[in-house]
Amino acid sequence: MSKESKPAGVILAGGRASRMGGMNKALVPLAGEPLVAHVIRRLRPQVGQLMISSDGSESSGSAFDTFGLPLVPDLLKRYRGPLSGLYAALHHLAEGGGESSLLLCPCDAPFVPLDLTARLQSADGGPEHPVAVVSWRGVLQPTFTLWHTSHLGVVQEIAVSEGDSGLKQVLGLLPHVVVEWEVCEPPPFYNVNSPGELKAASGWLDLDQDRTD
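Given the sequence above, the corresponding structure tokens read:
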């Protein structure tokens, strides 16, 4: 994959980790380094520019300084979950005039596949630019998706609405292609949302054949 063909990437790190004792989930340590560092290492070779989506607070911004990546703060006053980060990142790309495709990934997925971008791009439906979304064990994984700046209008309309719609509702309004991922261990789309899940992820690290140096 040439650098010119790589999409931009954004790591969603603006969530509220209530089950992790209030600590910023992206910074929770796994095997001696923050969760987000595992994601950065795995995504960086797959994308052009890599960004971190944050909630826009001053404390959140300073917490990510050490990673040397541009921050894309939320544009919405009301928290809308991953939809907030997607909207801000697509808006950022559209304003910048650079990459037109965007790979979305959460900050708490330490086993995200090293070929995620390639496989989502291979499912691209051509000039209509459908969203490419992962399915794992028959369940859509909307935070592991490939978007295009042409989707910004629909994303913005839902993001600024008064309802509680999220990424699945956006997918329902846009053409999308589904990439069914084979079952394997460790689970490639595993999210760490609690201390118990963090412990499980630690145990899976030795099974991960795709770890990068």
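The mean pLDDT is 88. Try to locate this feature in the token string yourself.
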